Amino acid sequence: MGRLATSAVCAGPIYIYIYMALQPYIMKRTAKVPIWASILAPIVLAFVIPFWGVFLAPPLLPVVCAYKRHLEQGSRKASEFDYALRRARILQILELSIETGG
What's the domain count of the chain? Predict the structure, then answer.
């Protein structure tokens, strides 16, 4: 067996352990990426973009998750703002009804 084959045999299990076990755990702790997404994204992208999908998935996944979280927080803030406007309008109506004696 040549040196390259020996290196591949030794590096293969290490790569699999790092990529399939440690990488999802680290991404979950640092970027708030779900573990299932960090395992599934490289597999899906490997089918979509056969060679580059595996290499593009880890950096793209935290960006997508952060953008999704940003959109969710924006919609939550918008709904809180709408609630505040409705509440202010109801208070105005109540004040008017109290002033008019109704």
Answer: 1
Higher-scoring residue by pLDDT: 9, 56? 56
CA distances from 27 to 15, 17, 24, 39, 92 (A): 16, 15, 5, 10, 49
How many Cβ atoms from other residues are within 10 Å of residue 57's Cβ? Answer: 22
Note the pTM of the prediction, 2 decimals: 0.47
Please write the tens of the pLDDT for every residue from 10-32. 767 777 777 777 777 766 666 67
Domain membership of residue 23 as a residue range: 3-99
Gap between the Cα atoms of 91 and 39, Å rounded? 51
Please give the span between the terminal C-alpha atoms of the chain, in angstroms, as a whole number: 95
Question: Cα 39–40–44 angle (5° rounding)?
Answer: 135
